[in-house]
Specification:
The chain has helices spanning 2-21, 23-48, 55-77, 79-106, 111-133, 139-168, 172-191. It is mainly α. It has one domain (2-191). The two termini are 16 Å apart.
């Protein structure tokens, strides 16, 4: 996720929007995306604490809808960019599905409700992608949107994925795996012509 943000989304955002609004504003949009996702996630967690119900699974489903929007917008930039973003989203959406079921079951819902939320979470990226088919975004706003999504990806990678890998096995091999993953994303972006 961090590699996609740094090596694909941010450079594309700078290329699309930097000439019109300046690189500083594009990078500010990355920071705004990071902060907005952090606030969204923490607000959803605070609202869900001590409450059963639908809030936790709903927040993950909204997250998946944003993932779909990110994929669709990335495909508007170029098919190669869309493919890289789609691969990154799919890599972490498996965990989102598991978390959706876990939150639904821990909130007091039965297996039918958990299945319903799992279906909604799985369908949400497709809905997000479909929504972008009805809107053609000009290059400058598209660049800013990609910058915001780069901020989302940086937050997810920095707050959840990297710390989880460290807690699971804080060894040289997890650091090496992270470096290999970043290099693989860089290489994929270069080979795709990004």
């Amino acid at each position: 996720m961090i590699g996609v943000a740094l090596f694909d989304l941010a450079p594309q955002a700078l290329q699309l929007g930097g000439h019109a609004v300046g690189d500083l504003l594009v990078l500010a949009a990355v920071g705004a995306g990071f902060c907005a996702y952090m606030l969204f996630e923490r607000s959803a967690q605070a609202l869900a604490e001590g409450r059963g119900g639908h809030l936790g699974p709903a927040s993950l489903t909204a997250h998946s809808l944003l993932d779909g929007l990110g994929i669709g917008l990335a495909f508007q930039v170029a098919p190669a960019v869309g493919a890289v973003v789609a691969a990154a989203v799919l890599a972490h959406d498996m965990a989102d599905g598991v978390n959706t079921v876990t939150l639904s079951l821990s909130g007091g819902g039965g297996t039918m409700r958990a299945r319903g939320w799992l279906f909604a979470d799985a369908a949400a990226p497709l809905v997000g992608i479909a929504l972008t088919r009805f809107v053609a975004i000009p290059p400058t706003p598209l660049g800013l949107a990609l910058a915001v999504f780069a901020g989302f990806f940086l937050y997810i990678g920095a707050s959840a994925l990297a710390p989880a890998s460290h807690r699971a096995a804080p060894e040289l091999r997890t650091s090496l795996a992270t470096a290999i993953g970043m290099a693989a994303i860089w290489l994929a972006v270069r080979l795709a012509g990004g």
